[in-house]
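Listing 4. Sequential folding, example run.
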Amino acid sequence: MIGAIARSKRIDAAEIRPETTFEELGMDSLDAIELLFEIEEEFDLTVEDEAVQGKETVGQVIEAVLEALADEPGAGGDAPAGGE
C-alpha cells in the first residue's frame, strides 16, 4: 500500500511511514480518491469511502483497508482454525 502511495506521489517509499500524514505528502481529496481506486485495483477489493474518510495518516488508511480485506467474502476472518 505504501508502494501505491509512493508511485502516486512519485517519491521514495522509504520516505513514507505509517505516521506520515496525507497533508505532509501534499495529497488533497482528489489524490485520496485516486489512491483509493488504485488500492482497490491492486488488492482486488472494494473499500467503502466512509471507511477511509477522515483518516489523516497512512497507518490509519492501512488499518481501514486491512479491515476491508478481512470483511471480503472468502477472507476466512471468522473461519475456525481447524485441526482440533
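-- end of first protein; second protein begins --
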Amino acid sequence: MHADLAALGYQGSYDRVAAFAPAWHAHRHEVEQTSGRGTFVPLAFGPGEAFQFDWSEDWAVHLRSEQLTGLTPTSCHASLSMLGSGY
C-alpha cells in the first residue's frame, strides 16, 4: 500500500501507513456494514429452476477385483432433496 501511495506522490513513511491501515480497514467495514469475509446472499429457487449435478469416480473392490466406480449425486435446490446414482 505504501508503494502505491508513494507512486501517487505520498511523502510519508511506511510506518505511518502501517499504523493507519488497520483503523481505516475496520472503519471501511463498519461503513459498508460488512464482515470482511464477503457477503452471503441466500439463493431461492422455484421448482425446476435449478439443480446441481456432480460426478465422482473411485476404485472399489468387489469379489476380489478392483473396479472403477462412478457416483452422481444430484440435488434439487427447491426441495433440498438428493438423488444418487452409482455406476
